[in-house]
Amino acid sequence: MSEYSGIRGTVWFRALTGQSLSMPGDPKSVLTADAPLGNDHARFLCVVPDPHARFPCARHGEVGLEEAVTLATRVREVIENEKNTIKRPIVAIVDVKSQAYGRREETAAIFLAAAAAADAYGSARLAGHPVIALVVGHALSGAFLTHGYQANRILAFDDDGVMIHAMHKEAAARVTRRSVDELEKLAKEIAPMSYDIRDYAKLGLLYKLLHVENPEKPSQQEIRNVESELIAAIADARGGPVDLRNRLESVAARETRKASILVRTKLAAQWLEN
Amino acid sequence: MSSKGYSADFINRQSFIELDARERAKALFDEGTSRELVGPFDRVESLWLPMQGVTPQEDDGCVVMKGKIAAQAAVVVALEGAFQGGSIGEVSGAKMTAALDLACADNEKGIRTSAVILLETGGVRLQEANLGLAAIAELMGSILALRKHASVICLTAGTVGCFGGMSLAAGLASYVVMTREARLGMNGPEVIEQENGVEEFDSSDRALIWAIHGGEQRYAMGLADALVDDDAPQVADFIRSFVSKGVPPVNRSSQVALYRDRIAKLDTSRQWDPKEFRALWSVNGLKEGKR
Amino acid sequence: MEQIEFNYPAKRKVPKRAHVGVVGSGDLEVLLEPSEGEVSHVFIRTSVDGFRDAWKAVLDRFFAKYDGAVRIEINDAGATPGIVHLRLEQAVEVSER
After folding, report:
1. I want to staple A194 with a disulfide (CB 3.0 to 4.6 A). Which of A68, A187, A249, C9 is the partner?
2. What's the Rg (C-alpha) of chain A?
3. Residue A169 contacts residue A181 (beta carbons within 8 Å)
4. pLDDT tens digits for A175-227?
5. Contacts across the A-B interface (CB distance below 8 Å)
6. Is A250:A244 a contact under the CB 8 Å cutoff?
7. CA end-to-end span of chain A, whole Å?
């Protein structure tokens, strides 16, 4: 149920764009399509499993070298082509198992490939493109930093199949020398450690939690609702600054990210020469 | 001098690696120009660590100092590798981002202000998981904004190195400076061995670790801009030069076509000797005038 | 995590505050600040429970020679008494510079 299934990305990409393919020449693990969204013509991107991927450690929905540079390419394309026109929205549909864990990846500097994708998304945002992340499944660690976390607005479904976190439960339990049960118990008391998306929502980073009865088989009405929410998020992004301050200014953030806010206040006060 | 004795260079060396975060940060500034902001006596510590029986540190493992480097305004943010492995928590992450945002605001007012980030970190602090991860994402956004105006220099000296989500921050930097001892990569050897087995990465093989992640390798691949000795004055010299250099003509992380092409050309049917990348990437890079 | 407090008599003013150390494994940080009055206060937070007596022994020894009026905060991650004493002396040295 909370296991990564790898289907949600494809399901929602098809639902929102009517398409289901990668662009010619691109690896099959990155789906890219331009499709209408409200009055806009948005670019949608999604990383999906490709069991025949060239890199053995990136065959089950991981974000690896090829995925990262392809995302970077397809996002940069939008920035380059629209320097003097309307800034189209860019929608990252997110259901990613993790980053790719491999010797080839480390040798060929996956950290830089990932940075290139994040650079593209972040630069698009700074250039005025509304960048929206729709988390339909898993959004873990380096994979989410690469694909989605530079968005102006983040939306997520509210079911148990959705998980945003820094490390999978089993690995986190091993590293912190606890049992998975102990970790889950601790996570219930400590909001930022929770694996429950409803607790994540309390951190003030999400724009909205959306309810879909069965995210792997959405109804036409549910798809239309999600589209409306995306359109609203785009309008909200367009009406605000291009930076990420909304993640600190939300109602929830003012409650759970008090220390972050205090740091900013104190640092600003001490910044000027006395 | 006898070739069996220790050279004067070695004796007089002032190790940078042996300095703690505060001392490292201080060493980079023009003499007498630095002061610490939101230091230990401000007592902005982690809310989350005491809840789990972990003793917090009053600066949350992140030192922010402001002053002049090569007579130019600069802010240095230094992670303390000895505290929780330099991992990013809510407060340490917020300090880094706020410092860069304030530097960016100064640039917009016409005061050229660079940032130097000292990275000794394994990435996200698991005890603060989602707030650590979010902080890294926000820091990355701030690096992107600041680096348009002034140089953002990432320095990794060891012994912790720079791993996890913070490796992406290094990837966004205007300049990367490393020692031979330092390492830079997204996933450490233990994590890879854990996820994909010892054949994929034997985490006990120290030679392999440095061959892939080490400073000399990264520099030779063209992914670091300087390889420095573990000598504080030399490190400070290089930092001064990169502050003065200003914004590079092109950022590594923006050269998507170059890296896409390089990755497409890789033969994925085998593991590689990392040394192959020294000729493959850096020589090509120099030829094309790229980074 | 355990919180421990001690008080000691103090005789003289201390010139300035000092911070030394890192909360690394087997280490501690010390925040030393001048205080008013004739009592020095020590506040300890340690991740290793059950060593109150050992802390008292180290601090008794320290304050037997030190008469500054201070507020000392310690954040400890399992330092030995030897390291604790070293850090306290370092803090004093910095505060008297």
Report:
1. A187
2. 19
3. no
4. 888 899 999 999 889 999 999 999 999 999 999 999 999 999 999 999 999 99
5. 244
6. no
7. 57
Question: Cβ contact (<8 Å) for A263 and B191?
Answer: no
Q: Shortest Cα distance from C10 to chain B (angstroms)?
A: 22
Chain B touched by C27 (CB under 8 Å): yes
Q: In angstroms, rounded to a whole number, what is the distance separating the alpha carbons of residues B278 and B222?
A: 8
Q: Is-contact A125 A133, C-beta < 8 A?
A: no
Q: Give the CB-side neighbour count of residue A274, counting CA atoms within 13 A.
A: 9
Distance from the C9 Cα atom to the nearest Cα atom in chain B, whole angstroms? 24
Chains in contact with B, counting 3 or more C-beta pairs less than 8 Å apart as contact: A, C
pLDDT digits (tens, 9 = 90+) for A22-71: 999 999 999 999 999 999 999 999 999 999 999 999 999 999 999 999 99
- Give dist(CA A207, CA A86) in Å, integer: 23
Contact A165 B213 (CB under 8 A): no
CA angle A45, A204, A216 (to 5 degrees): 40
Give all domains of chain B, ordered by start, each with its CATH number: 14-184+224-249 (3.90.226.10)
Distance, first Cα to last Cα, chain B: 41
**Token pair in block for residue C52:** 């109150």
Residue C41 CA to its chain's centroid (Å)? 9
Mark yes or no for CB contact A192/B201 under 8 Å.
no
Cα separation, B139 vs B145, whole angstroms:
10
3-class state of residue B114 by DSSP: strand
Q: Are the Cβ atoms of B192 and A122 closer than 8 angstroms?
A: no
B124 and A200 within 8 Å at the Cβ level: the answer is no
* Domain ranges (residues) in chain C: 2-96
Q: Is the dihedral of CA A184, A185, A191, A197 positive or negative?
A: positive
